[in-house]
Write a structure and sequence with these properties.
Length: about 110
């Protein structure tokens, strides 16, 4: 839900476009299995996003970065396996960083 100081059709159109773009980014990310006890697979589909994926990071609930992976930008599908055995049981956040500097956050659970 957004609050506008001035409401006009241009700001609404830009906001709706941004909302669609963010929804597209969220749909382009797969984290499986979720929950996981040992390995998670993280996949990004370039064909469904407007910008390519630069990298991703994994954070614990305290905000500590536990993992970072940089992708080769000319890939069509970005996929990577992460060994979660060293992670404690609990919730973790995957921050996806796109080539334009924007990012999204997804969750996974380590059993």
């Amino acid at each position: 839900n957004n609050t506008y100081v001035r409401s006009n059709s241009k700001s609404r159109i830009l906001n709706e476009n941004l909302k669609r773009e963010i929804e597209q980014w969220h749909k382009s990310v797969e984290i499986y299995p979720n929950p996981s006890s040992d390995i998670i697979n993280i996949r990004f589909h370039r064909s469904t996003t407007l910008h390519s994926v630069n990298s991703f990071e994994i954070y614990n609930t305290s905000g500590l970065k536990l993992y970072h992976h940089q992708f080769n930008l000319d890939q069509e599908v970005f996929a990577h396996q992460v060994d979660t055995v060293p992670f404690e049981s609990g919730m973790y956040f995957v921050r996806t960083i796109f080539s334009d500097g924007s990012s999204t956050i997804h969750r996974f659970v380590k059993l």
